[in-house]
């Protein structure tokens, strides 16, 4: 009898242990580089937070925010204090509480989390490393912590060691705030969700044919006139618009606020001044910027305009340099995006000033490129040199590669991957953002909602959903030498058909999470089914808690 009882008890215990084992799944997105589990768990509720004196202010602020959120959730204070007498080398066995300690031997953005039964030890060498450790830490806590809902739980975290670092250093998302305008608070909300998934570059598309969104003190008409259009194309029909005035812009103060906000989240804001095409809003404000002198109108339709900047006139360059001066004062980013995409050369070919410029420069059409393309090369080079003198580098869409591109430029490959492969082969750094995978404005399916918010461009039948994005392998097609030039991957959110936040997040989530694993996770750890599981088990609930819309999987 006794024997039987013992067998039964051990069986039960055994089953219990089995159940515990299957509990040991984390829901972290992007999937970390390595996770190994130990025995037991650490209880976060009421644990003291300690940080060493080497941490930066944003790191300490992020730690304090985490402690606050846990307090709201558990009702028990997690005191915050300077750690004394310990450093990153102190073994976890001799720690009690939660420790944030700088480990200078770790790479930029790398972090490590050790969880023992009595302590958690978090180490990194820089601010971003700690921010990512904290992002991961949060994802090991119940969704309620995000929602700041009281749960009176002990908040157990399984004992484990996580070692993590990004695969690519440039992990971007672009938002087009020109086709549709997003307020300061709305931009901040996007930055928040980017930070949750360890993205670190916000490419801010601020100027377009359909609207100029950045206050420039020297040229006030850019926002007085250029920030507003008289109507908006609402369907896929080019000729029709709703006839309603639409617009908005960011003051320089607001821009500073966003740059600072992003900085605290570990995100660098890269502004885009799209030139010499996509400039109608500026030309409507200052008609002398165009070849014919106008009049021009802020565009009410989508597509590519033949009307582009007149680059035969010096005055146009004065304008560009003045604008870039103000941009450089506002954005500390080393990289400035200068666009360069979709610039038809028709007007240049019949403009006296532009043709005179081509002659003066001795430009001839040959197998390297047309005269027009070479004129664009000249524009790119002048802008590049101007920015270089200010210590800045340029990024341009892959059209800047046509003709001849000067050393030091970074190419953003959007028309598939060929531009990126060619550029890297020539020794240029590249950021991969191919339409085939990374265009978050492309339709994810065939429901009515997909129709409403999705761009009309992609071929019928092709579905650009999270699964398609997830299948993207950025190194495909690159040889080893060229692969070293890939700085990273970016998702683009063009907003011709994305008119509000609801549609925005329907398009962005869960493709953003899929993108984050393409950018961060090593291929061996990528698994789409696991991403779906993590989304269902945890992340959609997080999105609900924060009120982000999404497209269910
Ligand atoms: C192409 S991507 C564009 C954008 C459009 C987008 C729509 C790029 C450099 N240019 O102006 O918004 O397609 O998907």
Can you offer a commentary on this structure?
The structure is a single chain. Helix 5 (184-196) links the parallel strand 8 and strand 9 (201-205). Helix 2 (57-74) packs parallel to helix 3 and helix 5 packs parallel to helix 7. The strands form four sheets. An eight-stranded parallel β-barrel has the order 8-9-14-15-16-17-18-19, surrounded by six helices. It has helices spanning 2-23, 57-74, 127-139, 143-147, 184-196, 221-224, 252-264, 280-285, 314-330, 346-350, 352-360, 371-389, 418-425, 435-438, 448-453, 466-470, 480-483, 501-508, 511-520, 528-546, and strands at residues 34-43, 49-51, 80-82, 97-102, 111-115, 119-124, 156-164, 170-176, 201-205, 207-208, 211-212, 228-229, 246-247, 268-275, 335-339, 393-397, 410-413, 429-432, 486-493. The chain has 553 residues and is an alpha/beta fold. It has a domain at 23-164: Chitobiase, domain 2 (2-Layer Sandwich), CATH 3.30.379. It contains 20 helices and 19 strands. Helices cover 38% and strands 17% of the residues. Ligand TNX binds next to loops.
Give a topology summary.
Layout: H1 2-23, E1 34-43, E2 49-51, H2 57-74, E3 80-82, E4 97-102, E5 111-115, E6 119-124, H3 127-139, H4 143-147, E7 156-164, E8 170-176, H5 184-196, E9 201-205, E10 207-208, E11 211-212, H6 221-224, E12 228-229, E13 246-247, H7 252-264, E14 268-275, H8 280-285, H9 314-330, E15 335-339, H10 346-350, H11 352-360, H12 371-389, E16 393-397, E17 410-413, H13 418-425, E18 429-432, H14 435-438, H15 448-453, H16 466-470, H17 480-483, E19 486-493, H18 501-508, H19 511-520, H20 528-546
Parallel strand pairs: 2-3, 2-4, 4-6, 8-9, 8-19, 9-14, 14-15, 15-16, 16-17, 17-18, 18-19
Antiparallel strand pairs: 1-7, 5-6, 5-7, 10-11, 12-13
Helix pairs in contact: 2-3, 5-7
The structure holds ligand TNX.
């Amino acid at each position: 009898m006794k024997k039987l009882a013992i067998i039964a008890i051990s069986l039960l215990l055994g089953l219990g242990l089995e159940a515990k084992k299957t509990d040991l799944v984390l829901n972290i997105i992007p999937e970390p580089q390595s996770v190994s589990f130990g025995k037991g768990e650490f209880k976060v509720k009421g644990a003291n937070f300690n940080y060493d004196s080497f941490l930066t202010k944003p790191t300490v602020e992020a730690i304090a925010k985490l402690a606050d959120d846990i307090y709201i959730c558990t009702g028990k204070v997690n005191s915050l204090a300077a750690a004394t007498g310990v450093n990153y080398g102190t073994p976890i066995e001799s720690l009690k509480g939660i420790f944030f300690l700088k480990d200078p031997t770790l790479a930029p953005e790398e972090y490590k989390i050790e969880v023992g039964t009595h302590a958690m030890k978090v180490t990194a060498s820089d601010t971003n490393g700690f921010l990512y450790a904290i992002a991961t830490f949060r994802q090991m806590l119940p969704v309620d912590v995000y929602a700041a809902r009281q749960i009176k739980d002990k908040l157990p975290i399984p004992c484990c060691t996580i070692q993590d670092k990004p695969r690519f250093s440039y992990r971007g998302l672009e938002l087009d705030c020109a086709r549709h305008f997003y307020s300061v608070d709305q931009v901040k909300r996007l930055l928040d969700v980017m930070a949750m998934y360890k993205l670190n570059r916000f490419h801010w598309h601020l100027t377009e044919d359909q609207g100029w969104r950045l206050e420039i003190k020297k040229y006030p008409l850019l926002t007085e006139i250029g920030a507003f259009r008289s109507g908006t194309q609402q369907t896929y029909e080019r000729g029709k618009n709703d006839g309603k005035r639409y617009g908005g812009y960011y003051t320089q103060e607001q821009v500073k606020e966003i740059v600072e906000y992003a900085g605290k989240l570990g995100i660098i804001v890269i502004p885009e001044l799209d030139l010499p095409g996509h400039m109608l809003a500026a030309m409507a404000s200052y008609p002398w910027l165009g070849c014919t002198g106008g009049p021009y109108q802020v565009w009410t339709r989508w597509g590519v305009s033949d009307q582009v900047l007149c680059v035969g006139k010096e005055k146009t360059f004065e304008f560009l340099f003045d604008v870039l001066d103000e941009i450089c004062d506002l954005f500390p980013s080393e990289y400035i995006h200068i666009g360069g995409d979709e610039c038809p050369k028709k007007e240049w070919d019949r403009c006296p000033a532009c043709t005179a410029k081509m002659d003066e420069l001795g430009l001839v059409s040959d197998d390297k490129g047309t005269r027009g393309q070479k004129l664009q090369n000249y524009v790119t080079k002048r802008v590049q040199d101007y920015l270089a003198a200010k210590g800045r580098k340029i990024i341009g869409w892959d059209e800047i590669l046509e003709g001849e591109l000067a050393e030091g430029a970074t190419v953003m490959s959007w028309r598939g991957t060929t531009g990126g492969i060619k550029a890297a082969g020539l020794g240029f750094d590249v950021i991969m953002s191919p339409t085939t995978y990374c265009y978050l404005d492309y339709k994810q399916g065939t429901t009515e909602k997909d129709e409403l918010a999705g761009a009309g461009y992609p071929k019928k039948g092709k579905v650009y959903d999270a699964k398609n994005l997830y299948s993207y392998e950025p190194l495909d097609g690159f040889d080893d030498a060229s692969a070293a030039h890939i700085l990273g991957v970016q998702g683009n959110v063009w907003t011709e058909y994305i008119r509000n936040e609801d549609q925005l997040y329907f398009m962005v989530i869960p493709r953003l999470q899929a993108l984050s694993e393409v950018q961060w996770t090593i291929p061996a750890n990528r698994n789409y089914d696991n991403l779906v599981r993590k989304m269902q088990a945890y992340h959609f609930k997080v999105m609900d808690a924060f009120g982000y819309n999404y497209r269910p999987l």
